Structure formats: C-alpha cells, structure tokens
Amino acid sequence: MEGLSKKEIEIISWLEFYKKYFFTSQDIDRFSRNKTHRYNIIKNLLKKKRIFKLNMTKYYLVPIKAKSGGLAEDSFIIADEVFNGKNYFIGGWAAANYWRLTEQIPMKIEIYSTKRQGIKKLLGTTFIFRRTTKKMTDKAVIEKISEHQFRILSRNEVKKWMKQKK
User: Fold this and answer.
1) 10 Å Cβ neighbour count for 41?
2) Residue 157 phi/psi, 5° resolution?
3) What topology does CATH give the domain 6-69?
C-alpha cells in the first residue's frame, strides 16, 4: 500500500469489500467533495496503476491481493465490461477456441462491435476491435464465466467463419 494516501486506501478497501472490481466514477462519489476532487482521485489512482480505464465511464480496480500488479481477470469479462454488455460479440480465433473448434490459443481477442475499431491493450490482453453491423451482433449468444455473462458469436457462425478462413 506504499504511495497511497489514506483516502485512496479507504476507496480501494471499500470497492474491494463490495467486490466492485469494475466501477464507475459515480461509485466513488461518496469519497469526494466535488467533481474536481473525484477527478483528481481517479487521476492519481490511474497514475499509481491501482485502477485502469476501460471506457469513458468505467474503471477496473487492481485488487490489493494482486501482488506486484499481477492481474488475472478473464479477457472475455473485460471485453463485456468495456462494452457494458451491449452491442458487441467476441469472434475470431478466441470464439473458435472457446467452442473447442480449434486448439489454437489466440494471442489477441477479436471483438466485433457497432461502435469501436482499432487495437488496444487492456490489463495485459491485446484486443482488436472490429466494426460490424447490428444484425451481426444479434447473432451472438450469451455465455457465462464465473457468474459473469458475456457475448460471443454462436458456434454455428464461428464454423462458417472458419470455413471462410481456409
């Protein structure tokens, strides 16, 4: 806990106690005097690598129990949190591996969405964001890992995708 202020320790402890590893800035409003103070708290926690920004409003708390910043959150859960559970699906080789259609373990996770595109490294995982249509996102199915839901391309759609790759 070196380098953390009393207020930062209080916030991290509260978030961890309530298992809010994925949280928004509004979750820590109770600890700040105003919007500027809240912004500074978040900025300092980001700089100290105690939290990571996932999207415009959501952050990931590095648990106190994570030694030397080691993170072990599942990449499918991170993807779901980045998109707030909407308008996306996990596809490509990650989906093929999930459905056991290949033994190839993907180095990058492809996420298809109606909004984002590009490459971003989050919590040690490289995500490739590809643009797709709303019609395609509707073909995704909902699965669960550790009681957390995520969206992934259906097994049949992944099989079709793999045939195109040959």
Assistant:
1) 19
2) -65, -35
3) Arc Repressor Mutant, subunit A (1.10.10)
